[in-house]
Amino acid sequence: MIKKRLFKAALMAASLALSGMTAMAASSGKCGENLTWTLDDEGALVVTGTGAMYNYDDEMNEKWDKTLIKTVQIGPAVTTIGTYAFSGCESLTKVTLFNNALTTIGDFAFMWCINMKSITVSNSVKTIKQYAFAQCKALEDVVIGKSVSDIGMGVFSQCGALKSIKVKDGNMTYDSRDDCNAIIHKETTELVRGCQNTVIPNTVTSIGVGAFSDGYGLESIYIPNSVTSIKNSAFFKCKDLKHVTIGASVVSIGKYAFQECFSLRSVAMGASVASIEDAAFAHCRSLAKLTVVAADPPICGTKGVFTGVNKDVCKLIVPSASVDLYKAAFEWKDFVNVETLAGIGKCGDNLYWALYNNGELEITGYGAMYDYEYDDTRPKWDKDLVKTVRIEGAATNIGNRAFERSPNLTDIKMPNTITKIGSSAFSSCYALTDMALPNTVTELGSWAYSHCRSLTKVHFPKALIGIGLNALVGCENVTSMEVEQGNPVFDSRDNCNAIIRSATNTLVAGCQTTVVPNTVTSIGRSAFYDCANLTNITIPTSVTTIEEAAFYRCSKLQEVEIPDMVTTIGEAAFTLCHRLVSVKIPDKVVSLGKEAFKYCHDIKTLVLGSSLADIGDNAFHDCYNLEEITVKATTPPTCGTKGVFTGVNKDVCKLIVPSASVDLYKAAFEWKDFKNIILGTDDLVADGGISVLVYGHTISVLGADTDAEVEVYGISGIAVYRGTDKTVTVPTSGVYVVRVAGKAFKTVVK
What we know:
By secondary structure, the protein is mainly β. Among the domains are: 24-168, Ribonuclease Inhibitor (Leucine-rich repeat, LRR (right-handed beta-alpha superhelix), Alpha-Beta Horseshoe); 176-335, Ribonuclease Inhibitor (Leucine-rich repeat, LRR (right-handed beta-alpha superhelix), Alpha-Beta Horseshoe), CATH 3.80.10; 681-750, Sandwich (Immunoglobulin-like). Helix content is 4%, strand content 30%. It is elongated.
């Protein structure tokens, strides 16, 4: 009947064109026994009066000119919109339905209104008859009123642009539970109509006839375990659909269910599928992988279930014990490439995995992955076999330890539904070359990509605002770190190849090519932890804090100059930096964290600043090549009880201390064990608290203003230095005169 109507419409238009006539719209008329209509020159059609509209037929006997109608307003006393009333109004963009009396929207009432983008069905409407909004190709948003109790067949057929479907709260027959963007019948729990953004709730038991037919924009769908049947034409002509996962409880797949889904690439069927009816996958010409978990081959309809599928190319993947059964079964035996599964299972309440013999791990479904531990809750797939991971559907997170220690994993594809990467999710995936973070990721868990030593580039999307501790430690080959512009929390200013927390100017992650900007004030906790290929680093004078484990196990770091403005060096800040040769702790540092330089075997000379009061446990443990320690503090720093200098040869290592403090050091815990104490010269103290300290060939001026000029002369009167530096190294031993702030100091360099 529809084709007949369209054909007659085309004939009428052609006849008018040939005769040179122009159809003129009447300004008003009758459209019901007690209803009238008016159409103004701006295309606004208003229906007023009381009662039902006429039902029209396919002869198009409405009296208004449909080509002129842009808006429709149905009066508050109208009870019914008639059959075909506004079908074919191609310029119609807006419909206003008043809530008072309207109960029925008739068959085909708005069919072919191809420019209408939204419709809100008023709360008074009870019945929407068949194909009422069919072929409304621009329709994106639908709201179903509270009283709708009867939705006819194909009401939204071929409304491919649908993005949002909502049933108002209080409807007794239908709902859109869990914000699913679909219409669900409450009693039957059948999904009546879905759209491109539908997420099927796990309370649905069937996918209705034509529920997604002719839709576009829907790229993947997960049918949860609650569903037992997929009815006829459910996904017919969903042209963008690429991936389908059919849950474990589906028993039957109806006729034409996925017919002409031309983009469909992969289908995974649960273990309960027993029958697939005629043409269910006909003309799915892109189908490349068909996974069937059922032990017994599903019975196929006689009329070409897989007609148009290239069975020479499409892989059929079945349980290893069932290969012979599939190779003998009707329809299934025609597939040339039959492979077996290495394993299948569940990895979330609504997520499922399948591991193929080629090393591809496919995860389908929606929601959160399970979090795993070292015990029996670890993933059930064989990590040694996994080479690639493909996550389809609507997974929201990668679970803790999900892929930890997968040595052959090289590539992962994550959908734009992922918001969180769990703790240690990819830790020690030594072959992984790309983080491949979707733009939707907001959180990176602790140790998430730690020790992924094949990573060379790190890119943080704009949405990522949370980074866990040690998320990137041990990624020793990273040479590029960047944060997408617009990120509200982190930045990579000045092309620094580092991640900086913007609000605090803290460098939270660096790599072997990092250049620390002079706006950074803190090297954050574990910032360069396990950066094995870092050989040198320049810390700008803006930095005041080096936090815990900042350079932990930077095993190739040979040289680091700690700026004078640094006040804090945290616990284990330079632990296991084996190749450091010389270390100078600035004068403003009061406390040195425990294990700060533990196992720094190659350190030969150490200078400890004048303000240092406390040295933590094992700070210089096993620094067995130490030859000389200069301590500028007049009061011996308090040493931790657990061997600050354990492993240092105190019989050989020289200890240089202020001359006035020799007796204090000889009596102090830890310091008294040094056998070779050399006296420094620091007894020239002038008014104003200015002092001069000599250690080795270095003269330090303490207590002077920052901009105060310092002059150093040899005993012959020749100037050695003029400037504002407060630390001066002289070339030879001898007597020197230091002038500063109008004071003169005579000092001896030995």
